[in-house]
Write a sequence for this structure.
């Protein structure tokens, strides 16, 4: 079982296959990219708390050592005064495209690009960016925004406090939810079998779908207004629109408690193969 304890900037090129990636870091910056080259781990900026890298039966683990904090009720004070400075690292990982990944970062940004395996990202405080990622994707942030650009497959994103931005996405399934923050989705989804749901408690929803979409649509804003570029939809309540686009074989539901909802029309991309 190859294992490394990294205490200074270092680059590791792995000569064994990787099928699963697990990362647990307390703070810093994490970049993960899919590649057809050999798996690599690069620690560009080290911290006082070592990073341990292990590779066992195709599972690549990267994690901080457990810190020695102040005892008992003083532990939160240690994190506030010293913790982030002692644990902030910059880690970049290159793995095969189809690698499944579970990424956990307490504080800091996470960027994932060009992967196709199952992906889970959990971030307490920071920005999550998903670039050209395909497959079954789940990302959750407590405080901070999520950006998903050029993603495909099944996408589930959620923030407690922060915006969600989805652009040029060809997802069949979408579940996006914010507690406090705007939600913007520009979708090039397949027209026939999409299942799209967007929810926000405090924030506005703006969604754009293909003009040839086949969707049953329901839009509602309890404390705001609803607008739509599709004349096929009809007003079904004081602040609600519903109806069918095309054959209605898919589904689009957008709900805002406090905020407006807007549905826009997207021209068909001729290069997209449905």
């Amino acid at each position: 079982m190859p294992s490394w304890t990294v205490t200074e900037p270092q680059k590791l090129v792995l000569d064994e296959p990787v099928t699963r990636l697990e990362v647990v870091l307390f703070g810093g910056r994490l970049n993960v990219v899919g590649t057809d080259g050999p798996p690599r781990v690069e620690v560009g900026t080290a911290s006082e708390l070592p990073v341990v890298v292990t590779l066992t039966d195709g599972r690549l683990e990267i994690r901080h050592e457990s810190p020695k904090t102040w005892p008992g009720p003083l532990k939160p004070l240690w994190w506030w005064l010293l913790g982030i400075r002692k644990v902030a690292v910059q880690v970049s990982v290159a793995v095969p495209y189809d690698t499944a990944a579970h990424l956990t970062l307490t504080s800091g940004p996470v960027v994932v690009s060009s992967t196709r395996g199952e992906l889970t990202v959990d971030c307490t405080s920071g920005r999550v960016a998903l670039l050209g990622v395909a497959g079954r994707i789940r990302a959750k942030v407590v405080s901070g925004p999520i950006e998903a650009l050029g993603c495909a497959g099944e996408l589930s994103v959620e923030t407690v406090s922060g915006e969600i931005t989805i652009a040029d996405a060809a997802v069949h399934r979408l579940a996006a939810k914010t507690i406090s923050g705007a939600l913007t989705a520009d979708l090039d989804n397949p027209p026939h079998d999409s299942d799209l749901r967007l929810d926000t408690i405090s924030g506005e929803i703006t969604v754009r779908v293909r003009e040839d979409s086949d969707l049953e649509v329901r839009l509602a804003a309890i404390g705001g207004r609803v607008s739509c570029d599709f004349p096929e939809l009809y007003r079904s309540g004081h602040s609600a629109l519903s109806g069918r686009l095309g054959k209605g074989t898919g589904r689009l539901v957008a709900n805002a408690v406090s905020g407006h909802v807007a549905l826009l029309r997207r021209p068909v991309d001729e290069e997209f193969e449905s």
